[in-house]
Amino acid sequence: MNIAQYTKAASLDEAWELNQKRSAVILGGCCWLRLSPQRRIAQAIDLSALGLDQIEEDAEAFRLGAMVTLSQLEGSESLEAFTQGAMKEALRHIVGTQFRNRAPLGGSISGRFGFSDVWTLFLALGAKVELYKGGLVSLAEFGKTGPGKDIVTHLIVPKKACQTAYASLRLNATDFPIIAVSASTDGENVRCAIGARPARAEVVTLPFADVQQLGAVAAAEKIAASMKYESNMRASEAYRRDMAEVLCRRVLTKILGGDAK
Question: Which of 33, 85, 249, 253 could cysteine-pair with 260, CB 3.0–4.6 Å?
Fold first, then answer.
């Protein structure tokens, strides 16, 4: 990776202005950015001096800065308790401790990676993206847009009483997931997200009463069948579809209060 001009932004205004240049790139931990083939960056923008590395919490929501690392999320006792361990389960497989110490949340969100465990979990939690100029937008809607010139500053997770579960299937412990599933319920609705299909995670929302009436097995079959799957070097389309249904059943069983198998 070759950088012609590097700027540590002193304010979000400065970062935003610099990012309007066609060749500008915002740096995160550079964990994936540096792997791009023959990457030359004319203007690199560093957000590390802007105080975006904080996990804030009030009665309404968690406000997670774009520079909060995956290790910070993994080690947050508040997030672990709020998600009943799903946060730690979603993050602990990602490459290794050294990688998670470097990788910021904003990079995972802005990158819109199809293999992202982070996307899958936060979709199920009904998270919103806070953009510097664009304001709040749901993570689901943000995923439908292409790369833009706005800056992701925070991720907002509504702090409703909920039950959450996460599960993934991998060839190796630190490999990309073959399929990833997360479900969360606030007692009114159930949100179930399926990622690594290998496309970016998508979420299905069903009334809690309907899921209870269907039961975890039938609800999992319905949700898994609503998604499209593809084959790649890690798994076939058919295998992903089958495993998505299995993992959906497990996470739905868990949030409905049963024994996941």
Answer: 253
Per-residue pLDDT band for 174 (boundaries 50, 70, 90) equals confident
Q: What percent of the chain has pLDDT over 90?
A: 73
Cβ neighbours of residue 237 closer than 8 Å, sequence gap 6 or more: 229, 230, 231
Instruction: Please give the angle made by the CA atoms of 172, 220 and 256, to the nearest 5 degrees.
Output: 95
For residues 194 and 179, the answer to whether their CB atoms sit within 8 Å is yes
Q: Which of 84, 85, 114, 117 is nearest to 100 (CA)?
A: 117
DSSP result, 180-234: EEEEEE-SSEEEEEEE-SSSPPEEEEEEHHHHHHHHHHHHHHHHHHTS-----SS
How far is Cα of residue 132 from the mean position of the Cα atoms in its chain?
19
Is residue 172 over pLDDT 80? yes
Residue in the block written with tokens 């560093």: 46
| Ramachandran sector of residue 156 (left: φ over 0; alpha: ψ -120 to 50; beta: rest) | beta
pLDDT digits (tens, 9 = 90+) for 83-96: 999 999 999 988 88
| CATH class label, 163-255 | alpha beta
